[in-house]
């Protein structure tokens, strides 16, 4: 199977910065990039006219909570009248609210709702998505969520990376008992059934302490799960230092992370994942320290954090805009963050995240003639085609 992407105005290869190649074409064979440059189609093949368009690696959304029951627009309305996310959580809303709705949904219901959400991701150019569990909060319910994520992984048109998330302590359960259940029952069962690639912990004052997070992550590491951590979102919890000490693949959120912890993460090779959609959605004042990330030359990734409480944004082009508007990231930093660095945050940099010979042919063709318009034309539906392993999985004029 061969595909020719003809005459793109710009190809963003993501090699050496964003690696713009102007007025060029791409030849794809058997789902892999074969040639990039001023080419003529070497043989009869499916041709996509990319004249006047930017071609970019498919977006990698490296942090989502895409599987859940119900929605929380009532809490959204409460927040608009001044109640904070943390106060709603303490009063039994927030994550606990979604846990109730997820537990009452069947596997089949969760699967079909999530499949619809994945169709939205594809329309917005995402070709790989990480999905966390974390709304079950018991052995059987977390396993149920992970089975749904794994069924989606088998059936969806894009790659799905499953993560077990120790999200928070369930209502009416003692902290110590739940942490023991995670360590003695959940993680061994997940490992034995091969239900997740990663283990993640929400290390913050409304969830697990640094000590509890360390116990959970050490167990996961011993079971050969790769590690992620939700760190320093609402307070300086020490999560980023823990990520460095345990050499987590990534640390996510990082609003309260200090300069010292940013340096420690960088030295330990931890990829920071920033989630500007959450800052926008929750209208948070505290922002990650972009200047220090830049100074340390950290490979910063950005992702949507799609979830019912703190970000209902499917679109990575919108997340790219928000990274620029809200975090002051440069356009090039945001674009590399949504592709190459996000692939690195999922330990997939060898196969996806850039347009290079031999890599998987995941692409998005955007209806703009230069890359600066991607964040600039905020909110515009600019994805013309989404291509996964050389196959068109979304096309506006098809
Ligand atoms: O990443 N930080 C914790 N968890 C989610 C929010 C989950 C929810 O509110 O349902 C997040 O923002
Ligand atoms: Fe999250």
Q: What is the topological layout?
A:
Layout: E1 2-12, E2 20-29, E3 32-37, E4 46-49, E5 54-57, E6 59-61, H1 73-80, H2 85-90, H3 95-104, H4 107-123, E7 126-132, H5 139-155, E8 159-166, H6 175-192, E9 198-203, H7 210-222, E10 226-231, H8 239-246, E11 250-253, H9 259-268, E12 271-274, H10 276-281, H11 290-295, E13 301-302, H12 316-327, H13 331-337, H14 340-345, E14 363-366, H15 373-376, E15 383-388, E16 391-395
Parallel strand pairs: 1-4, 1-5, 6-7, 7-8, 8-9, 9-10, 10-11, 11-12, 12-13
Antiparallel strand pairs: 1-2, 2-3, 5-14, 14-15, 15-16
The site of N-(iminomethyl)-L-glutamic acid has 13 residues, from helix 3.
Tell me what you see in this structure:
The chain has helices spanning 73-80, 85-90, 95-104, 107-123, 139-155, 175-192, 210-222, 239-246, 259-268, 276-281, 290-295, 316-327, 331-337, 340-345, 373-376, and strands spanning 2-12, 20-29, 32-37, 46-49, 54-57, 59-61, 126-132, 159-166, 198-203, 226-231, 250-253, 271-274, 301-302, 363-366, 383-388, 391-395. The chain has 398 residues and is of the alpha/beta class. The chain folds into 2 domains: 2-57 and 354-395, Urease, subunit C, domain 1; 59-344, TIM Barrel (Alpha-Beta Barrel), CATH 3.20.20.140. Strands 1, 2, 3, 4, 5, 14, 15 and 16 form an 8-stranded mixed β-sheet that branches. It has an 8-stranded parallel β-sheet with strand order 6-7-8-9-10-11-12-13. It is globular. The two termini are 19 Å apart. Bound molecules: N-(iminomethyl)-L-glutamic acid (NIG) and fe (iii) ion (FE). N-(iminomethyl)-L-glutamic acid is lined by residues 65, 94-95, 98, 202, 230, 233, 278, 305, 307-310.
């Amino acid at each position: 199977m061969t595909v020719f992407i003809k005459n793109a105005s710009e190809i963003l290869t993501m090699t050496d910065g964003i690696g713009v190649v102007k007025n060029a074409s791409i030849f794809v064979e058997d789902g892999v990039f074969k040639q990039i440059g001023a080419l003529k189609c070497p043989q009869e093949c499916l041709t996509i006219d990319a004249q006047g368009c930017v071609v970019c690696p498919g977006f990698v959304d490296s942090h989502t909570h895409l599987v859940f029951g119900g929605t929380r627009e009532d809490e959204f309305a409460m927040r608009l009248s001044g109640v904070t996310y943390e106060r709603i959580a303490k009063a039994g809303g927030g994550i606990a609210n979604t846990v109730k709705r997820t537990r009452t949904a069947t596997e089949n219901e969760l699967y079909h709702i999530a499949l619809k959400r994945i169709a939205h991701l594809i329309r917005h150019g995402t070709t790989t998505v990480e999905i966390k569990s974390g709304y079950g909060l018991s052995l059987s319910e977390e396993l149920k969520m992970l089975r749904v994520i794994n069924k989606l992984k088998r059936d969806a048109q894009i790659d799905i990376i499953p993560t077990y998330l120790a999200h928070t302590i369930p209502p009416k359960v003692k902290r110590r008992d739940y942490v023991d259940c995670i360590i003695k029952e959940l993680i061994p069962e997940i490992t034995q059934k091969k239900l997740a690639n990663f283990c993640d912990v929400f290390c913050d004052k409304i969830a697990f302490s640094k000590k509890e997070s360390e116990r959970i992550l050490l167990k996961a590491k011993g079971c050969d799960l790769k590690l992620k951590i939700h760190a320093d979102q609402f307070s300086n919890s020490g999560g980023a230092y823990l990520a460095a000490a345990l050499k987590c693949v990534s640390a996510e959120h990082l609003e309260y992370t200090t300069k010292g912890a940013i340096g420690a993460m960088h030295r330990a090779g931890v990829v920071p994942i920033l989630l500007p959609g959450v800052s926008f959605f929750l209208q948070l004042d505290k922002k990650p320290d972009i200047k220090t990330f830049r100074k340390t030359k950290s490979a910063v990734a950005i992702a949507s954090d799609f979830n019912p409480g703190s970000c209902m944004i499917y679109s990575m082009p919108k997340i790219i805009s928000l990274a620029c508007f809200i975090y002051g990231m440069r356009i090039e930093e945001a674009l590399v963050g949504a592709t190459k660095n996000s692939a690195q945050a999922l330990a997939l940099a060898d196969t996806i995240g850039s347009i290079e010979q031999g890599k998987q042919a995941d692409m998005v063709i955007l209806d703009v003639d230069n890359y600066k318009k991607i964040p600039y034309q905020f909110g515009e539906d600019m994805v013309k085609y989404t291509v996964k392993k050389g196959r068109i999985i979304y096309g506006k004029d098809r």
